[in-house]
Design a protein that fits this description.
This protein has 4 helices and 2 strands. By secondary structure, it is mainly α. The protein has one domain. The radius of gyration is 25 Å and the shape is elongated.
């Protein structure tokens, strides 16, 4: 049985033959490669850099970390109670 990553490929997978072919390889003189050159890493990184999959996630994490950091500095017990066993 073939695998997709770490998951076994399900029976009757409609794109099995295409998946097993692998990624296409184009030579430097291939007409497709000439019309569609590979994008350099710098431009590719610039395209995806502003992407934020979870809007507001960073702010929510920062809001949770601030009180926790203050409690740790002051030695106050967290929401689960004291960290030391009595």
């Amino acid at each position: 049985m073939s695998r997709i990553g770490t998951t076994p490929m399900p029976e009757g997978f409609p794109y099995r033959e295409l998946f097993l072919k692998g990624r296409p390889c184009h030579s430097q003189t291939d007409p497709f490669r000439i019309r569609h050159p590979s994008m350099d890493i710098g431009r590719r990184a610039k395209i995806f850099a502003p992407f934020d999959a979870l809007c507001g996630f960073k702010e929510a994490i920062a809001a949770q970390e601030a009180p926790a950091a203050k409690e740790a500095e002051e030695g106050l017990p967290g929401p689960d109670g004291p960290t030391e066993e009595l």
